[in-house]
UniProtKB/TrEMBL annotation, chain A:
Keyword Transmembrane helix applies: yes
ABC transmembrane type-1 domain segment(s): 123-327
Domain of life the protein comes from: Bacteria
Name of the protein this chain belongs to: ABC transporter permease
Organism this protein belongs to: Nocardioides humilatus
UniProtKB/TrEMBL annotation, chain B:
Family assignment from sequence similarity: Belongs to the binding-protein-dependent transport system permease family.
Official protein name in the record: ABC transporter permease
Domain of life assignment: Bacteria
UniProt keyword annotations, A-Z: Cell membrane, Membrane, Transmembrane, Transmembrane helix, Transport
SUPFAM superfamilies given in the database record: MetI-like (SSF161098)
Compartments, as annotated in UniProt: Cell membrane
Transmembrane region(s): 9-29, 120-142, 163-183, 195-215, 256-277, 308-328
Record Pfam families: BPD_transp_1 (PF00528), BPD_transp_1_N (PF19300)
Membrane topology: Multi-pass membrane protein
Species this protein is from: Nocardioides humilatus
Any one cellular-component term (Gene Ontology): plasma membrane
Amino acid sequence: MTLPAADLAVHGESSSAPPTEAARKSIAGRSPTRIAFDRLRKDPIAVICFVIVLFFAAIAIFAPWVQSLFGVSTDTVLASTRIDLVTRLPKIGPPNHGFTMDHPFGVAPGSGTDNLAVWIEGCRTSLFLATVATVLSTFIGVTLGLVAGFVGGAVDAVISFFTDLFLSFPFLLGALAVAPIISERYGTDIDKLRVVSFYSLVFILVIFGWMGVARLVRGEVLSLREREFVKAARVIGVPTSRILVREILPNLLAPIVVSVSLSLPGYVAAEAGLSYLGIGVFGRESWGQTVNGATSYWEIYPLFLLEPVIGIAVLVVALNLLGDAIRDAFDPKTRR
Amino acid sequence: MFAFLVKRILAGSMIIILVSMMVYTLFFYGPQHPGLELCRRDNHGRCGPTSPKLYDYEEKLGYHNAIYTEYGKWAKGLVAERTITIGATEYKCPAPCLGLSYRDRTLVTEQFKDKFPVTLSLAVGASFLYLAIGVSVGVLAARRRGTVADKMLVSSTLVFSSIPYYLVALISMLVLTISTSVFPKVEYISPFDNPLQWVSGLLLVWLVLGLFGSTSYTRYSRGSMVEALSEDYVRTAKAKGLPARTVVIKHALRSALVPVVTIFGIDVAFLLSGTVFTEKIFQLEGIGKWGVEATVIKDLPVVQATSLMLAVCVVVGNILVDIVYSFLDPRVRLA
């Protein structure tokens, strides 16, 4: 392991000749974010996981086009056209018939809806919900953490108390208790319920998800606010809000990026899990709901269950490993 | 020690009371028509949100009184018998009274007695495996730090623990008990009736829960063991000529267990308050499944009971963890 300083000394001694272009590049300063990004690019696991995540994201964003590309849709069909009404199993595609390009993932037993279309919509719900929840919880966590760490005193005590309170309250039980109440109160008709159930789930995930970031940011701010650049900014009369946003926030980029990349998979998994328990989104396709419905068909039609299971597992594992790689890349202590 | 315990128990009771108040408030004001399910059941579904019958039900259940009166009645029921009126019938509820289930009007405490042994059995088996597998693998990995086996173990636990738990449980249940019969059908049989069937019926659940949960114990105990093995007192012990076994188990492991005990206390508390996914997937009638079903049909007394149970478990778990600390690590002083 050579220290960067050693490299510098060597270049300094040979200064009789003007440094070559390559040598100048190697000693050029790089920002921590740049260093992390370069490390990330050289990490094969991170690259593979990033491609997988990008693939899922593309499916989610371009869901309508992907569906029309395969010529499938989630529209309800007259079940008898696709389903054998006696066995309730599909007349086309798996499990009893071969692969068909009309329905690459087969059709659902009972209802006859196309599995691929449902899968794509499930991917969309999952990523959309996880993204909204991540953005909101990060925003709340960062704001509260900044304020608590910078202002200190009674404000810090109050915010820290609530952080600890929410941390000690179990997420699942909170979700179970709050979700039905919100849905009952505000979801008065089907259209409203569709929107309300989505946002009540986001609300629950955010309410039980902001504490980690808040704690992390608070801790960082506590040490940052004593640094010279912050004191200098204060001395020349920069207003507090500007110090927070322009001086302190850029220094928090690394922990925030890491916490975002590790909370996304958590939310994807939580959404599917809650849908599986029957308290997830209503009126939208969700992988968790498909898993719940498909469990009873396992013996005769395993593919029906495996499709959403593989979807959840691959997406969550890829996101998690990518998050770990990002954390390692930003951590100067890890060596590869 | 004694002063510490008294202090912790008082603080713990405060938290339990606060949580019970929060839960009570949530379910007092939360549902628009808390008596609707009860009223529908009695009147063959002919009970709307505006019907006078519903008003009567809610009146008798006390939903029109002030919340503090009702909370007082509920709390008093924990120590004294009270009567609860549902519709036209009066029910006696002996202490400790947690109310009547809105679903079948049986005493919540009676149902609790049926469900708790299932959850307790799950928790005992799983927590045993957490420690047995997690700590021993972690210690072995720490002693062979940097070898291929260690690296493979670390990366495989990372990948394994990234998969959502319910998928692991669901697929193992389907593959191991339905597709192939490697494991017998999962069921709960009381250990006092037949200890062998108790073990064989729950073995798969224990393994799934234990193996999945032990990954984090492996990581924690490996990390803290690596740290402990590089401490001065471990070097001293080695220099004294103590056998490697004694050094690892008596000197290093004791202090390395401190972070493990912390998460263990919390995990056991959560296991005791019901492993929702496990119980739903394996169809075991425990506290977790009971709680989920109760929230879906808005069986409020049951939800209150399960939440309270959870709070009690978490608080007691934390106090126990603090006590265990002082035994494990002589440097910890309780004050």
